[in-house]
């Protein structure tokens, strides 16, 4: 039986979600303060006019494959706010920007992380007191750390709470406007109305 148009759309969205945390075919870096997003031009350039223009021939970003986000100190909404940029990148891949809630807290004595071993990625148990080399997600840098340090991996962006959701949605609307992402503006406006 053929798939419905909704099922086909869901398959496309699911495939893009799979690319979000997988830099295998990444051909563009978005640098936001100390975070690097390994993204895919085929995903981020069609919708936001900012990224499409930055990757156009003749601009330095087209040759370097890297876009660095900046914000003026006078900006009311910081266009390089790491939390907002996390949500924006998530939106570009998933068509939504609410962060995923963790299923459960990891055991304090064992944490899971992605490991880079000769081009293969996998998961291993990290035990306190042992040393491991691993790749930080969304980064090409391999890092060696001694387990037992407070934060082996950068924490995920904080979930949107009832006290902050109206503020976040208004900032996401501004971000969508600044970067030329009409769908993000529409999603933020709808979420703002639902939360207000």
UniProtKB/TrEMBL annotation:
Protein name per its UniProtKB record: BTB domain-containing protein
Record-annotated BTB domain positions: 26-93
PANTHER family assigned to the protein according to its UniProt record, in alphabetical order: BTB DOMAIN-CONTAINING PROTEIN-RELATED (PTHR47843), BTB_POZ DOMAIN PROTEIN (PTHR47843:SF5)
Domain of life: Eukaryota
SUPFAM superfamilies referenced in this protein's UniProt entry, alphabetically: POZ domain
